[in-house]
Amino acid sequence: MSPSRGKFITVEGGEGAGKSSNLAFMRDLLEQSGRQVVFTREPGGTALGEDIRELLLGHKHTGMAGDTELLLIFAARAEHLARIILPALNDGKWVLCDRFTDASYAYQGGGRGIDMGRIQALESWVQQGLRPDLTLLLDLPVETGLERAGQRSEPDRFESEQQAFFERVRQVYIDIAEREPERVSMVDASRPLPEVQQQIRGVMERFLDRVQNHE
Ligand code: Z5A
User: Percent of the chain beyond pLDDT 70?
Assistant: First the structure.
């Protein structure tokens, strides 16, 4: 008998939201619940995708056209879906992904001002209806996030953007969460880490209960 399809969980947030700080915690929660977890990220997750990530984040191509950026992101996504995400889900594994297509709406749509219809067209072409089962949005005021992120190493091509860019990114994320409350759970990431993790634990436990009741 083939295994039941795994679940696809994504984590999103603006600058300094604490994704890295919380992804390992989420992976532990899933593994403790007995799930086999594939942990991956976007842009990236495959050898080709990681090369594209370098083009996107590095400063070699500063000034890249918005459409080029968007197409590179979806090219990396197509590879990621074909090689990692779909095979894992079909094998009954759960996929925990650091960013996915909500980031394209937020950064390319909101931040860069690309027509959302173009992003939707690429989403339907590349994903063929696949969307995350659960998305955690780590939300916090832009200023707080920038302060936190500022304590890190040299900024990449996205991190070098101005505050207004990140305000637009945040607004698109909030709009998505309001439009899709069933899929997207918003976490107040401005709180101290233990409190953020308590909120995340609550969301994950509710999701795991829901899945178990349907299995
Ligand atoms: N991108 C895109 O444009 N379109 C797309 O479709 C996709 C991506 C998929 C790379 O993403 C870039 O790709 C991203 C958007 C673009 N650009 N940006 N910006 P990334 O996810 O790899 O990069 P990132 O956003 O910089 O994420 P990160 O490195 O994981 O950092 P983080 O989420 O900001 O979290 P952190 O490193 O865990 O936390 C930052 C600092 O805050 C750190 O010192 C922590 O110790 C501290 N921290 C964390 N939580 C707390 C709390 N609760 N209190 C106090 N301090 C805290």
Answer: 98
Domain boundaries, the chain: 8-214
Q: Give the whole-angstrom CA distance, residue 135 versus residue 177.
A: 9
Sign of CA pseudo-dihedral 179, 205, 210, 97? positive
Where residue 215 falls among pLDDT bands split at 50, 70, 90?
A: confident
Rounded to two decimals, the pTM is 0.96
**What residues have CB less than 8 Å from 53, skipping those under 6 apart?**
43, 44, 76
Query: Which CATH homologous superfamily contains domain 8-214?
Result: P-loop containing nucleotide triphosphate hydrolases (3.40.50.300)
- Which residues contact ligand 1 via a Cβ below 6 A? 13, 15-21, 42-43, 57, 73, 98-99, 103-104, 107-108, 148-149, 151, 158-159, 192-193, 196
Helix axes 19-32, 193-214, angle to 10 degrees: 40
Give, for ligand 1, the residue of 12, 20, 79 to mutate: max count of ligand atoms closer than 8 Å to Cβ: 20
